[in-house]
Amino acid sequence: MRKFIFILFIILQSCDMDKDVIITISTPYGEMKAILYDETPLHKQNFIKLSESGQFDSTIFHRVINEFMIQGGDVNLFDEDKPIDYTIPAEINDNLFHRKGEIAAARMGDNVNPNRESSGCQFYIVQGKVYTEEELTLDMNKLYEGVRSLIQQEEYSEMREKLIAAQRDPEETQRLAMSLRDDVEKKLGYSTRKNISQEIVDAYTSVGGVPHLDGQYTVFGRIVEGLEVIDKIAAVKTGQADKPIEDIPVTFKVKKANKEKITKQYGYTYPE
After folding, report:
1. pLDDT below 50 — which residues of the chain?
2. Long-range pairs, 267-270, Cβ under 8 A, ≥24
3. Which fold would CATH assign to domain 22-129+207-266?
4. Domain limits, the chain
5. Strand 19-27 to strand 87-88: parallel, antiparallel, or no bridges (unpaired)?
6. Residues 119, 107: contact at Cβ < 8 Å?
């Protein structure tokens, strides 16, 4: 009998591992479908809890910045009787980055939050912009270091004078420095390339995103349908503190689904 119960438990556990959830985020501008990452279990379970309990349904997108992100989930904005005053330990993962459509947790700054713990409720959805490969891979600090050494050579005296003249013009200084990139790498042996994977480069040069946030905040989900809704919300008129002039109410619905079906329908591949 015990053996039968154990086998039944294993079968049920296996079936449960094949299941996941799809979160439907409904707004006046359309619906978005989201999956939450298994690699960030604390954030995933918290988001599901707030969605299923209806606490998120009292919220709005309260901060919107075009070509950056749309932020929501502030349960405390309207429901002061049930404040969410806890934080979630950071689950920052180098493989989860800020491409367009990613869902990440808001948090307090490093000066008061050195462990980068996440807000218990607030999140943002990335919009960002598309970058060139050079913008993503060029390490400007390394380039400037190389340029400073290079222009000490006599043959670069003319360029040295141009850089001195452009000291108060950051854009011209950058342009001149970038024109010397090949010389810095070939003549000095400097590498001016950032250590960034091709997957990340491909994502930011195609759909776009916000690369400077990588490694700073916990990314825990992805919009797998309805990316155009992000653009519509990001384009609304805003006032003080980047708050939309007209409220953008949001409701959330959680639905269980088979992982294989999610992959087939939305193109998301689960990590092995």
Report:
1. 1-15
2. 267/224, 268/35, 268/222, 268/224, 270/20, 270/38
3. Cyclophilin (2.40.100)
4. 22-129+207-266, 139-188
5. unpaired
6. yes
